[in-house]
């Protein structure tokens, strides 16, 4: 398999990046062109897509939505109590204690209304200046949450770019980062675009606020939010089914998908759902990476300075003119994503195709048919709580393992699905990643493990669990994993 070297694709710093010339809305019509047939087929496909979405239950049920709303309401109550407690501990004057307040702002897929049943709730805790992150957030609020009967599996992720607490509230995963504003009273729906609230805020708080800013920007630039939500929900499902969703594993995360979909939507706001999907595949199957995808036309070129020119797919972060979404994309995952986009394009391009079926477009990626060998990554720990910490840490370092395996085999497909081994009784998680079969090449898995251990041993503060790596042939894959779609 041939890959471009990332360094050969650096962008010269004097290039002005205009959006690439992709005026195509629909593929070339058949000859003789029959516009009414074209229109009918396009509408028919949009209708069958809506049916497909309903069958897949892409929108969570009203009960699930209520559960989420309730979780946010309770979290708001907890942070309100917390900030009063912290104000007392800091011995603030009584009148200040009386007026001080903190709040929760939702962002990410939940904030945009494009979440699925498996999505987390991204909830930013916004508090006044006197509540420190190290002590008041990660200790005092952590302890209060831990004592709440609805909260389980709470972990502090202090070393992340955006430090946060991650836990389950009534079974729903919550990501809770933290931002401090230079005010005493934080209104419930504080306007974080108002410069008054942004005065002299610290770096971490600015970064933590970027998700909320990004959502505001998307909502501002996207014309018809309901259609946008449907489109994004569909394409996120497509990315998940095809195994190319998940930032930690080197694929597209929610934020990347949001920007790509918004890019298409901005250009064709009146197109049907079917045409928008066709356009998405058409545009990104042939996108001249690493030309960045940007939502604002004629965007300042100072942004170019901020591009990591080794990035395979630079995608502008819609919260700042100077930032790009963080990615873990490697040459293998870049190749996989592009192959999937091309597949999507090939399957949707011909409106007159007689046996067209959305089920085929959204078919799960058949790993066991595609690869002859796999690397099995077995992670375990003595209890479920420690396993959560351990797996979270290893996942945050997975890009390193993908690169090591790429170096040896030329290609590695880090399947994001987590499996379990029915023969094991200890708390554990298993990953099976597809590998390119290279004739007469025996992988020295101990060497791979040794190299990866060097990466994971650096900086972990919890109790390390166990990690086993082994190479399996397709015929050795467990039946249960095959039944789960491996
Ligand atoms: N790689 C990244 N680069 C920049 N911002 C990110 C990145 N990952 C996450 N974020 C910010 O955090 C938010 C929440 O991320 P998350 O991974 O939960 O994705 P999501 O869009 O909410 O999708 P999902 O439904 O899978 O949760 C994003 O909307 C974005 O604002
Ligand atoms: Mg999310
Ligand atoms: Mg999240």
TrEMBL record:
Residues noted as binding Mg(2+) 1 in the record, renumbered to the chain: 120, 122
Keyword Transmembrane helix tagged: yes
Positions of the Poly(A) polymerase nucleotidyltransferase domain: 42-222
Transmembrane domains' residue ranges: 244-265, 271-289
GO molecular function: ATP binding; metal ion binding; poly(A) RNA polymerase activity; RNA binding
Superkingdom, taxonomy of origin: Eukaryota
Reaction catalyzed: RNA(n) + ATP = RNA(n)-3'-adenine ribonucleotide + diphosphate
Residue sites binding Mg(2+) 2 per the record: 120, 122, 175
Amino-acid positions noted as binding ATP in the UniProt annotation, renumbered to this chain: 120-122, 175, 236, 245, 254-255
Gene Ontology CC annotations of this record: nucleus
UniProt keyword Zinc-finger, yes or no: no
Cofactor binding: number and manner: Binds 2 magnesium ions. Also active with manganese.
A single GO BP: mRNA processing
Entry EC number(s): 2.7.7.19
Free-text function comment from the UniProt entry: Polymerase that creates the 3'-poly(A) tail of mRNA's.
Family label: Belongs to the poly(A) polymerase family.
Protein name from the UniProt record: Poly(A) polymerase
Lineage: Eukaryota, Viridiplantae, Streptophyta, Embryophyta, Tracheophyta
